[in-house]
Design goal:
about 350 residues; alpha/beta; CbiD-like; Rossmann fold; five-stranded mixed sheet; about 30% helix
Length: about 350
Amino acid sequence: MLNAMQNAIHEDPLTDPVTGFTYPDPWVRAAVSPEDLSLVRAGHAVLTSSGTILKRGFTTGTTAAACCKAAILSVIQPVDSVEVTIPCGLTVTIPVKGVAGRAECRKYAGDYPSDATAGVLFLAEYTRKAVGLELITGDGIGRFVRDTPLHFTGEPAISTPALECIFAAMVDGLAETGLEGARVALSIPDGARVAASTLNPKVGIEGGISILGTTGLVEPWDDHLTESVAERVRNTDRVVLTTGRIGLRFSRLLFPDHEAVLAGAKLREGLSCADGDVVLCGLPGLILKFLDPGILDGTGCMTVEELSGMPEFEQRMAKAFRNGKERYPGLRVVVINRRGIILGDSG
């Protein structure tokens, strides 16, 4: 019976709808829990080379969007779950409790035990607004304490994809209720305490956690996925390693004849397995700090993103490229911004 189930599942190639990666058949046949392959096909989980299936979690942005939508929907009737279309294009169902315009939602981290925000409670409260939408960010949501290239002092630490997801969810909430407007106050009661164990204090964000999410999903990085990254890198002679979803998307456009591999923070492990034509491509933060851990020394900047707006950025990026060439002679490094514009190319 089990073999029949596996054969039925394996008739079509198994492709991750989030990354576009088609899993090798040996990985699929090694699946420890074949019944969970449907989660992989839906993008809710990832399959590792060992056959282990790890569930993805939801970002703070996805959690916030679900909570805000539920606050609106619960004006009409109580809700215990909502559907949210997340930035990667998938529609997911999020458990949430909403009654009489007040909603609660806890962040689900999936199989990512190191997620500092796992289980954090989000609260959203609806008040009447005649027309249009207004989002009020309250306690527990971090705010910038200094100007950066993308944010001004006092602005809430909400990324553009996350903010777009929140407003899209609220628009859906209005459509489903027939309301023409809503004012929603979002807060994270334990956000300030949790933020102390994140990088926020080091990057100039105080008072709470950030609301983020390039795809809307949290990747369950662990030793199993390190093995899978290594396996993918070993199996190709033309590879481009990248650190996140933006890098992955533009790496495929910039290097269509390469195998694009999302290595996250596992760059050292990925490069140690690479042979042949190897490119490192993505946003400057992780990549330049990986190549030159002291890149911010003496700049007065708290992040590489902040440094990117300074006159000395190109000089320091060039130094990082030289470091990369010394450590990995055959490596080409391409640094891009969030719109895919190339900021630097080591050649």
